[in-house]
Amino acid sequence: MGEALSHVLQRYVNRVPPRAVSASGIMIRTADGHEVIDGFGGAAVACLGYGNQRVRAAMLAQLDRIAYVHTSVFTSTPAEELAELLVGRAAGGLTHALFLSGGAEAMEAALKLTRQYFLEIGQPQRTRFIARQQGFHGNTLGALGASSNPRMKAAFHPLISDAFSHVSTPFAYHHQRADENAGAYSQRLVAELEVEFQRLGPGNVAAFIAETVVGSTTGSVTAPAGYFAGVREVCHRHGALLILDEVMCGMGRTGTLNAWEQEGVAPDIQMNSKGLGGGYQPIAAIQIQGRVVDALKAGSGTLLHGHTYSGHPVACAAALEVQRIVAEENLLANVRAMSTVLFDRLNDRFGNHAHIGDIRGRGLFATVEFVEDRAGK
């Protein structure tokens, strides 16, 4: 199915993957005539499927108006309207949005904004970031530093900052002890975070970083009840920010627009991508608490960050239409309804399978974990 020759540097450099030439709904068609069901939506991206005509029309209309502006000079109508949709209600205190081109860019922006915030309020000593083991936040160097994926990081350790350290991620299937319930497990994890704050010096910690529902590294892992309230309290007590990475789990995949809504805890900075634009254009966002933005306004008045394609008007127009469709077609309610069907059928079919250890997740963000030995996990 592959091409004989390619001048594209492919991810697997010794083979050329099938060439996709068209797509609609859940089907991708290749140059040699095969049709493939894209059950994963690319990299968990294509939340509306392929070929949505409303999104196409919105992109074409924006191209006819203006395709590109640089955000050091101009804003654009689709960027303003997308920000209004995401943070106009100031849900959880998030009042501003910055639009970028991918999840790793969003992570880098969150790290730099956090650093600048503490410079603006006169706390330059806060240079340490605590993240979690078995977490992944992107492939750029700052994002890799926050990540804990040995396979992705090994070659680049000499280039990665030592500003990052890691604590345990909530992963009850493998790490909750037999003698503790969910509450005790949650308390143990929060206590571990407190110990790490003390090790680093609480006044030196800038932020704690976590995926609200852990994505690709562990597969749809949810935290025990009370965990996020506990880590929020630790961060607040020590003056650090809470950064939640919802690049994969956000924008409705778990049944609410923001996965943190189901935890009852709002972040200081949040990242979104994948389901934000549904793959129709490269786009990501960070959403920011008003007090963080207020510090910049009262201080330098300048955001020390930006990219050539930040706030791209066509990307914002595509994402805006995707989110309008999600709202108008009640797709979040559908995620919640179909989640019950999905998990019922997964448990019916695989719940007693000798090589299925765990069936987990939230909404339509689900994982089945294969094991060699069910008893030994």
Structure notes:
- With about 375 residues, the chain is an alpha/beta fold.
- Helices cover about 35% and strands about 15% of the residues.
- It has twelve helices and twelve strands.
- Helix 8 (about 180-200) runs parallel beside helix 9 (about 225-240).
Structural class call reads alpha/beta
Give the biggest sheet: 7 strands, mixed
**Percent of residues in β-strands:** 15-25%
Total strands? 12
| Uncertain segments | none
Mean pLDDT: 96
Order of helices and strands: EEEHHHEHEHHEHHEHEEEHHHEE
Widest sheet, order of strands = 4-10-9-8-7-5-6
Helix coverage percent of residues? 25-40%
Report the radius of gyration as a whole number of Å: 21 Å
What is the number of helical segments per DSSP (H or I, 4+ residues)?
12
The geometry reads as globular
What is the CA–CA distance across the termini? 37 Å
Give a brief outline of the structure.
With 377 residues, the protein is of the alpha/beta class.
Keywords:
17% strand, seven-stranded mixed beta sheet, globular, 36% helix, 12 helices, alpha/beta
Secondary structure elements and pairings:
Layout: E1 20-24, E2 27-30, E3 35-37, H1 41-44, H2 53-65, H3 77-87, E4 94-100, H4 103-120, E5 128-132, H5 141-146, H6 150-153, E6 164-167, H7 172-175, H8 182-200, E7 205-211, H9 227-238, E8 241-245, E9 269-272, E10 284-289, H10 290-298, H11 313-328, H12 331-350, E11 356-362, E12 365-370
Parallel strand pairs: 5-6, 5-7, 7-8, 8-9
Antiparallel strand pairs: 1-2, 2-3, 4-10, 9-10, 11-12
Helix pairs in contact: 2-11, 3-11, 4-10, 8-9
